[in-house]
Design a protein that fits this description.
Strand content: 35-45%
Helix content: 25-40%
Order of helices and strands: EHEEHHHHHEEEEE
Radius of gyration: 17 Å
Protein name: MaoC family dehydratase
Shape: elongated
Structural class: alpha+beta
Largest sheet: 6 strands, antiparallel
Number of strands: 8
Number of helices: 6
């Protein structure tokens, strides 16, 4: 799917209720998980101890941190949409966020998005984006929710 290019609030609003796009697949490997563990100081064995996970985990492998999965959202989002003519973009919040199932190391994930709501708050574009981070070959998403962004158009 081609990246959506937005230049104004009106262009953004024209996509209300539509799927905005789907990102490419991204592999979540052990190196990425280890780096995230170092950054967050969360070294729980289910994420970083490959040998123990093979023996003791129900997944027979390590799994990504839920917040690592969430942290991929900006990277995957940037593959779907390019918003021009803005001074600033602010993450405003997350609603109805649910971790549906873990991302087993070596799995590939992608982002699927839909513009759920949009409003003009005195020149600030408030966009509520329904999102799902899907796991390749799985029916249930790893993560879903509504992300709210504030776009300050010039």
């Amino acid at each position: 799917m081609e990246k959506l290019i937005i230049n104004s609030y009106e262009e953004f609003a024209a996509h209300l209720g539509e799927q905005l796009g789907i990102s490419d697949w991204l592999e979540v490997d052990q190196e990425r998980i280890n780096l995230f563990a170092d950054a967050t100081l969360d070294h729980q064995w289910i994420h970083v101890d490959v040998e123990k996970a093979k023996k003791e985990s129900q997944y027979k492998n390590t799994i990504a941190h839920g917040y690592l999965t969430l942290s991929l959202l900006p990277y995957l989002w940037s593959q779907i949409i390019e918003v021009n003519n803005i001074k600033m973009l602010v993450n405003y919040g997350m609603d109805k966020m649910r971790f549906g199932q873990p991302v087993v190391t070596g799995s590939k994930v992608r982002l699927v998005t839909k513009l759920q709501a949009i409003s003009n708050l005195r020149g600030i574009c408030k966009a509520e984006i329904e999102f799902k981070i899907e796991i390749e070959g799985q029916r249930k998403p790893a993560l879903e929710g509504v992300a709210t962004f504030l776009y300050y158009f010039e």
